[in-house]
TrEMBL record:
Pfam families: GATase
Domain of life from the UniProt record: Bacteria
SUPFAM superfamilies registered for this protein in UniProt: Class I glutamine amidotransferase-like
Cellular compartments per GO CC: cytosol
Ranges of residues in domain Glutamine amidotransferase: 50-192
Source organism of the structure: Nocardioides exalbidus
Protein name: GMP synthase (Glutamine-hydrolysing)
Length: 243
């Protein structure tokens, strides 16, 4: 089998490792089958799509809608590298799954708009599949409604041309979409469990996702939530595209 490529953007070593470990476990792969590149550490080397079964992009604190003057050199470099890779993946209809940050990367292609209109606080919410989502080879293996962990400042307010809406919440119209047959983005995090989201709440306490006094409440609510289904997307992605 050709390996999958995992792209991360988290500068915090412990959180970055936890994210990779969670995706690795969810995919059911060995480390040599899910090769990690941390984009916050340097430019992305040339990627020959033919060397890989697919690409998985993790989340992180970068937002494409951040004011340009506030973006670090590392963020600008990661955005440029991911834009180029996303354009190539769409053109080739190459298997690509972007979680959370993937919405910004893919949602801004082809006339799409990503802005701060539909941000959601850190929480667990019901995600509902559209008719197209229920018929989709990847999302369609999920229940029509499932609870997922999420928390994001930006979201898609206009889908890219030709994109297919697959899932929504009451407070964010675009929670998953597909471009072509094989390029996917989800706003929710398929890899997260209660321990991991609580660790991220702590790690990103100064990043503007919540007010300081909300920290313990958010963690308590995350622990109380029953989130079991989203991780299935990772194994299904591997099942569909391993080659």
């Amino acid at each position: 089998m050709k390996p999958f490529l995992f792209l991360g953007t988290r500068a915090e070593d412990d959180v970055a490792q936890q994210e990779y470990d969670a995706v690795l476990a969810g995919c059911g792969l060995r480390p040599d089958e899910l090769v990690r590149v941390r984009l916050e550490q340097g430019p992305l080397a040339p990627v020959d799509l033919d060397d890989w079964s697919g690409v998985i992009l993790g989340g992180g604190p970068f937002n494409v809608s951040d004011p340009e003057e506030s973006k670090s050199p590392a963020q600008r470099q990661a955005e440029a590298d991911l834009h180029d890779l996303a354009v190539r993946a769409v053109a080739a209809d190459f298997p690509f799954l972007g979680a959370c940050y993937g919405i910004g990367v893919l949602g801004s292609l082809g006339g799409g708009i990503v802005d701060r209109t539909w941000g959601e606080p850190i929480c667990a919410l019901p995600v509902r599949l559209t008719d197209e989502g229920r018929a989709d080879p990847l999302l369609g293996t999920m229940p029509p409604e499932f609870t997922a962990y999420l928390g994001h400042k930006e979201a898609v307010s206009r889908l890219p041309e030709g994109a297919v809406l697959l899932a929504s919440t009451d407070t964010c119209p675009v929670h998953a979409f597909r471009i072509g047959l094989n390029v996917y983005a989800t706003q929710f995090h398929p890899e997260l469990d209660a321990v991991a989201i609580c660790d991220r709440i702590d790690a990103y306490s100064s990043h503007g996702y919540y007010e300081p006094h909300e920290q313990e409440r958010l963690k308590a609510e995350a622990r109380d939530a029953l989130v079991t289904e989203p991780v299935r997307l990772l194994a299904r992605f591997v099942e569909l595209y391993a080659r």
